[in-house]
Amino acid sequence: MTILFVLLSIMLLVLLIVWAKINPFIAFLITSITAGFLLGIPAQDIAASVQKGMGNLLGDLIIIITMGAMLGKLVAERGAAQRIADFLMRIFGKKYIHWAMMLTGLVVGIPLFYNVGFVLLVPLVFTVAYQYKLPAVFVGMPLLAALSVTHGFLPPHPSPAALVAQFDANMGLTLLYGIIIAVPTILVAGPIFSQMLKKIPSNPLETFRANTKPKEELPGTFNSFFSALLPVVLLISTTVLTLQVPQDYALYPYIIFVSDPGMVMLISLLVATFTLGLKMEVGMKDLMDIYVVAVKDVSMIILIIAGAGALKQVLMDSGVSQVIADSLEGWDVHPLVLAWTITAVIRVCVGSATVAGLTTAGIIAPLIHGTGVDPNLVVLAIGAGSLMFSHFNDAGFWMYKEFFNVSIKDTIKSWSVMETIVAVVGLFGVMLLDWILF
């Protein structure tokens, strides 16, 4: 009955949004409360569960999304994104620009948290799409596929890093195996799959759409790349420092502080305010006006993500993840396939890749010991399953839909299918690597 109630809750969410045309944030609240009653959460605890879910998710994302929106708006408005797009087009040409997007997403995605990479690089996608009259979804999907794969497969992202510790795997080997599997997975889910998406209509948010400027008014190439990609530089450098510097070193706590994605985005925005604003003789009032407009344009996205967090928390508090995992535990299949399947089912029901991965780890760990399966491949199998079919209960689904401004139907046809391709091809890569190495 538990799984049936989860399916009914998801169906209700779909009907409220698609059929009743209710605002997704309100639909999430209604669905979360309904799911709480159906799944047996005490009535007096449902509101607290909803509030906790919204607060926890926004606590992680609010600085990243708002600072990222401000930085993205500034990069677009001041011509930095146009300069970067011109540079990429000269290197790859219009015909191969989607390969440039894939490479950018892969390189940037390794050290960058998914949500940071999304809000940072999406303005670049839109600038390329508008300037060269290319479909935004076609241009953006290779980049988003790369960001998604690195988020699910590769340390130091939270879920893979935690799984490495839980299975006593080797961080370096997991990263090496992960990159081997990630590259072909991104190729299939990104540049190859994106060829089928050229006809999907998309009208991206106006806030990231800057008018084409004369070349003499654009910032320099170095300034543009530096200002837009400073978060990447900061995250890479602080990550390396945290691995190299002993924890009893006096500056270690400050390195950890600066390495927080929210702090990285704040520092990067302050630097860009100078390099793309004050340095180019733009008044502070004009810069602040840009930031106000940027936040207004993403306010509904923030509310929708909060709603997704509420539903996720209700499902977690009801114990549905454990019920699903327990029901699949006795399957007589290969341990890697079992790990992937349990994770994929939990991911589809709960929506959070991290929750799905860590929940599966607690169930599958006792089964893995003694089977001879490489723990590094277990981490990657779980990582692949955690990306399975992103839909209405996943914040990433709504970020993509709202930023690219596409319909629910087209979001499923593009984003959800892309995530499914990543999960399936990722499992195939894990099994192939297991066959080759062992």
UniProtKB/TrEMBL annotation:
Keywords: Cell membrane, Membrane, Transmembrane, Transmembrane helix, Transport. InterPro entries: Glcn_transporter. It is found in: Cell membrane. It is a multi-pass membrane protein. The keyword Cell membrane applies. The chain crosses the membrane at residues 30-50, 57-76, 96-122, 134-154, 174-193, 225-245, 251-278, 290-311, 337-365, 377-400, 420-437. PANTHER family: GNT FAMILY GLUCONATE TRANSPORTER, HIGH-AFFINITY GLUCONATE TRANSPORTER. Belongs to the GntP permease family. This is Gluconate transporter. It comes from Echinicola arenosa. The lineage of its organism: Bacteria, Pseudomonadati, Bacteroidota, Cytophagia, Cytophagales.
